[in-house]
Design brief:
Blueprint (H helix, E strand, L loop, with lengths): L8 H23 L4 E3 L7 E2 L8 H11 L5 E5 L12 H5 L2 H16 L4 H10 L2 E2 L4 E2 L4 E2 L7 E3 L4 E2 L4 E2 L2 E3 L5 E4 L1 E3 L4 E2 L4 E2 L2 E3 L4 E2 L11 E2 L4 E2 L12 H10 L1
Parallel strand pairs: 4-7, 5-8, 6-9, 7-12, 8-13, 9-14, 12-15, 13-16, 15-17, 16-18
Antiparallel strand pairs: 1-2, 1-3, 3-11, 10-11
Length: 246
């Protein structure tokens, strides 16, 4: 068993951002475009060239930029698909070979049952999966950057759950961020989430949509729809329905 300390979400976010900035700089120069990064979806944009981690000045600026510990960033300025010098937003994230490999592995994991073998496959892809985690069949974990996904010990992720760490917003703009699911959580079947912080012992009811509405869910919370109303009939059936509805 490896004795290396587990990577923190903050260190992983920093490493991913540094890699994306390097690729954005290289592709921006090739295409003659000014690519920018911001800490919110429509916030103040900073040219990635000014954050070049391969130059002394850029490295200092990059360190200052990521010190705030933002949980998500937005890349913009890549151009709309029909522009002649547009940059493919997927290429800014990862090289082609890595993207294809992750898509194949995610497709394989999608149909696998929730076993320790499935957890090992996700770890191979880079996701941080705790001990005694169960990820049910047909749950989908994003292949964009699996290393941005953290799942704590003793957590269950139900079937058809959709966990994504990125969103393409059109016109050459995409957003990416951390998904942290704490220990002892039960993520109900069909739950949908993007970048979010879910603390210990949270339960989501089946079919719940968390993002972009809830950036953080506190310890012990239960999230989902209220119990559905019971329509009571008149006459003899009313007593029966009252008993059945509790």
């Amino acid at each position: 068993m490896s004795t290396r300390p587990a990577a923190s979400p903050e260190s992983v976010m920093r490493a991913v951002t540094e890699d994306i900035i390097r690729r954005a700089i290289r592709l921006g120069r090739r295409k003659g475009r000014s690519v920018c990064i911001s800490k919110t979806s429509r916030g103040r944009a900073t040219p990635v060239e000014s954050l070049n981690p391969d130059t002394p000045e850029g490295k200092q600026a990059f360190d200052a930029y990521v010190t705030s510990g933002a949980r998500h960033y937005t890349i913009s300025g890549l151009g709309a698909p029909e522009e002649r010098n547009a940059i493919n937003w997927r290429a800014v994230n990862l090289p082609l070979g890595r993207r294809v490999l992750l898509q194949v592995l995610v497709a394989l994991s999608f149909v696998m049952k929730g076993t320790p073998l499935k957890n090992r496959l996700y770890r191979l892809m880079g996701a941080h999966i705790g001990r005694n985690v169960e990820i049910m069949q047909l749950a989908w974990l994003d292949h964009f950057r699996p290393e941005l996904i953290f799942v704590g010990d003793n957590t269950l992720i139900g079937a058809y759950t959709h966990i994504t760490v990125h969103a393409y917003e059109g016109a050459g703009r995409f957003r990416y961020g951390l998904v942290e699911i704490g220990p002892d959580c039960v993520i109900g079947a069909g739950t949908g989430m993007g970048p979010i912080l879910i603390e210990r012992g949270v339960r989501t009811l089946p079919g719940t949509t968390l993002s972009p509405y809830l950036p953080r869910i506190r310890t012990g919370s239960v999230v989902g729809y209220n119990p559905p109303p019971v329509k009571r009939s008149s006459g003899a059936d009313e007593k029966t329905e009252d008993r059945d509805a509790g």
